[in-house]
Amino acid sequence: MARTIKYLLLGVTYALSGALLISYMSVWIPPDKLWIPAFFGLAFPYLFMVNLILFVYWLLRLKKISVVILLVMLLGWNNVRHYYRLPVKNKRDREKISQDTGFTLTTFNVRSFNVNAWSANVGKDEQIIRFLKKIKPDILCLQEFYTDEKRFPEQKIVNELNYPYHYISYIQQYHSRSHYGLAVFSRFPLKHKKNIRFDESSNQSQQCDVIMGNDTLRLFNNHLQSTNLNKQKTPLNNLNEEGEALREVKDISLHLRGAFMKRARQAKMLKQHIEKSPYPLVICGDFNDTPVSYTYHVLSAGLKDAFVESGKGLGKTYHGIFPSYRIDYILHDPRWKAVQYKTYHNRLSDHYPVSCLMMKKRMADQNGR
User: Fold this and answer.
1) Cis, bond preceding 323 (omega within 30 deg of 0)
2) Domain residue ranges in the chain
3) What are φ and ψ of residue 357, in 5° steps?
4) Going by DSSP bridges, is the β-strand pair 139-148/328-332 parallel, antiparallel, or unpaired?
């Protein structure tokens, strides 16, 4: 019996280590061509933790398989850095960095300002506006931007936020008086504004050039394909109903699969626009995908991740039903440096706002001396 249990545990260990390897490979495999590895990428943090537990177990039993598990985990160590950063202060954290040498940027999915009271546990529209006025970044990128001509008109938001420049693009009209889309507010002039729409989707991206004196940055504000899960689609709600739990799990799997495939196509389309940029890039927004995903791999290629550069602790930006990961990003050109990355852990939306101070590399180095 003991021998049977041992071999069974060995088989489970090899299977889970193999699953972890597949999660690494998922970033290279387009889900619209082969979608199964995307599920392994989504499960990466859990697979890594289980492998860590198995590593400790087999190490205590002095088994050579512990070396195999360790090697598998080390192969994906770079992925861990995208989920968690040690909360250790470095020299630059202690330095007083002047914002005159750069600009602050915030990205925030405001979930339609909660105007339809989609949740009693998050802030109302007035609270969100007050928060945005309080932090007042130089560039503010909003997703799921919503206006209603009677209850929450666009002009009221524009006046309240009081930025000299803004770019608002709508993709969906719920009825004659309400609209849904993206918005960029800026204290710098915005030129060459362009809306990027995706086929068969209520999601979109914005492109515009930010003019900052002698510098021009091309900004992409993004809201990629949503998974569209809600409490009614949370698995295992109805265990007492025969077959219902299985049907719910299958329904969620289909939603995730469809979203993986659409985001892959959207990322490839967006990449074509990105590659045409003659200016340094800033790509931010709600990607609806984790750092171990094809979407993130495509869009972050050749760029820096503000969280990896100067974030602290767990990078979680979403506190909705599922999944609960980092899915909101600030990516930028290597000629710039992100410092003072911050996640605002409030409950104003189902997403947390994230922000950072962007500085030109030479200026950042001089400030850090």
Assistant:
1) yes
2) 2-81, 91-368
3) -100, 125
4) unpaired
Close Cβ partners of 93 (under 8 Å, ≥ 6 residues apart): 310, 340
- The residue behind tokens 């008086």 is 177
* Locus of tokens 């490839």: 268
| pLDDT for residue 233 | 47
CA distance 226 to 29: 20
Using 50, 70 and 90 to split pLDDT, how confident is the model at 232?
Answer: very low
User: 227 and 314 in contact (C-beta within 8 Å)?
Assistant: no
Residues 6+ apart with CB under 8 A from 212: 103, 188
- Per DSSP, 349 falls in state S
**Cα–Cα nearest to 316, from 328, 304, 331, 301:** 328
* Cβ-contact 259, 265 below 8 angstroms: no
Which residue from 283, 351, 255, 345 is spatially nearest to 42, judged by alpha carbons? 255
DSSP 261-327: HHHHHHHHHHHHHHTT-SS-EEEEEE-SS-SSSHHHHHHHTT-EEHHHHH--EE---B-SSS--S--
Q: What would be the CATH architecture of the domain defined by 91-368?
A: 4-Layer Sandwich (3.60)
CA gap 17, 118 in Å, rounded: 40
80-131 per-position pLDDT tens digit: 999 999 876 655 554 455 555 799 999 999 999 887 665 655 557 889 999 9
- Position 178 scores a pLDDT of 85
Q: Is 258 exposed, middle or buried (0-12, 13-18, 19+ CB in 10 A)?
A: middle
Report the candidate in 331, 313, 323, 311 with the shortest Cα–Cα distance to residue 351: 323
Q: What is the pLDDT of residues 41-54, one digit of tens each?
A: 999 999 999 999 99
Q: Which residues contact 157 (CB under 8 A, 6 or more apart)?
A: 129, 147
